[in-house]
């Protein structure tokens, strides 16, 4: 007897191994990842059950990271418009203790930001010891939208991949773990989500006609993502590509990646030396 079809006793495969961008021949191609696939998921039922458990686990691990107060976790979220960056922050990050979370959306650089190197605004928002930092878009925009629209000369963009790798290595050496997640949706799913936004009066505020213009550059974006992920998937800061057409799967997979990462970091509660009997006596006096 092997315990029937149950998973009891079977060590589940790490989701990170399934979703880590594969670059075996030296090149990663986003087009080869099916946005509707659900790697590692046994059934949709499992998704719902696990999500509740994931919340509790993530919250506990984050508390340990905060209590330990030595290391930080930085989550870089990238993806096309409507890929679910905001939704992931609401549904996955929203379950963490907000006291130790720092969320930063990166928009078009301001006049001041433009006067500095592209990493300047990024450095200013790195998480402190004990914190979880989330970048909603990031320094990768400077090799994505900037590449697609030729907003900087190509030789400048070409140098940025190495600059990014060096920067991320430096951040890692300062005790910050970096996890980079690309939410991958299909062209048709984006259309569906933009139509939903347009038809729902409460979602129209999120709609921008610019998003329709950007759809004309879909293939260029896919190619810019493939190049960035190929060149910036490093040992110290890996890229994970999460199929994101299914929102529940997306939340399930992202929370799994975070749980696995935090478990590996294995943060420890500090154990200060306290003379507990004496302190109790004082309190009871
Ligand atoms: P959203 O995330 O929908 O609020 O949109 C933010 C916009 O800012 C997106 O269109 C990004 O491509 C754009 N953006 C972010 N960073 C940069 C950057 N470094 N250069 C140019 N555009 C950027
Ligand atoms: Mg947008």
Strand content: 5-15%
Radius of gyration equals: 21 Å
Total individual domains:
1
Strand order of the largest sheet: 2-3-1-4-5
What about the largest sheet?
5 strands, parallel
Structural notes for this entry:
The chain has 285 residues and is α/β, with parallel strands linked by helices. The protein has a single domain (15-284), classed as 3-Layer(aba) Sandwich (Rossmann fold). The protein has twelve helices and five strands. The chain has a five-stranded parallel sheet, sandwiched between helices. The radius of gyration is 21 Å and the shape is globular. The structure holds adenosine monophosphate and magnesium ion. Magnesium ion binds at residues 81, 208, 211.
Keywords:
12 helices; five-stranded parallel beta sheet; binds adenosine monophosphate; Rossmann fold; binds magnesium ion; alpha/beta; 285 residues
Blueprint of the fold:
Blueprint: H1 15-19, H2 44-68, E1 72-79, H3 85-91, E2 101-105, H4 111-114, H5 120-123, E3 132-136, H6 145-148, H7 154-173, E4 176-184, H8 187-199, H9 209-215, H10 218-232, E5 239-243, H11 247-265, H12 276-284
Parallel strand pairs: 1-3, 1-4, 2-3, 4-5
Helix pairs in contact: 2-11
Q: Concise description?
A:
This protein has 285 residues and is of the alpha/beta class.
């Amino acid at each position: 007897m092997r315990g029937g079809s149950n998973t009891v006793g079977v060590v589940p495969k790490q989701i990170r191994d399934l979703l880590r961008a594969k670059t075996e021949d030296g090149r990663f191609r986003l087009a080869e990842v099916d946005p509707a696939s659900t790697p590692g998921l046994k059934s949709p039922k499992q998704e719902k059950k696990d999500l509740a458990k994931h919340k509790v686990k993530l919250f506990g691990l984050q508390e340990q990271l905060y209590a330990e107060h030595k290391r930080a976790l930085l989550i870089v979220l990238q993806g096309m418009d409507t890929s679910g960056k905001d939704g992931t922050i609401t549904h996955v990050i929203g379950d963490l203790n907000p006291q130790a979370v720092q969320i930063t959306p990166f928009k078009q650089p301001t006049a001041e930001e433009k006067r500095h190197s592209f990493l300047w605004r990024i450095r200013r928002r790195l998480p402190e010891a004990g914190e979880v930092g989330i970048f909603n878009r990031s320094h990768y925009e400077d090799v994505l939208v900037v590449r697609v629209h030729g907003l900087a000369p190509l030789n400048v963009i070409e140098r940025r991949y190495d600059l990014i790798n060096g920067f991320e290595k430096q951040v890692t050496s300062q005790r910050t773990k970096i996890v980079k997640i690309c939410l991958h949706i299909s062209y048709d799913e984006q259309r569906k989500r933009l139509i939903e936004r347009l038809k729902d009066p409460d979602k129209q505020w999120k709609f921008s006609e610019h998003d329709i213009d950007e759809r004309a550059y879909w293939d260029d974006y896919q190619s810019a993502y493939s190049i960035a992920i190929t060149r910036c998937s490093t040992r110290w800061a890996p890229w994970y590509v999460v199929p994101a057409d299914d929102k529940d799967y997306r939340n399930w997979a992202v929370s799994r990646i975070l749980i696995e990462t935090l478990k590996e970091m294995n943060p420890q509660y500090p154990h200060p030396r306290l003379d507990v009997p004496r302190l109790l006596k004082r309190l009871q006096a």
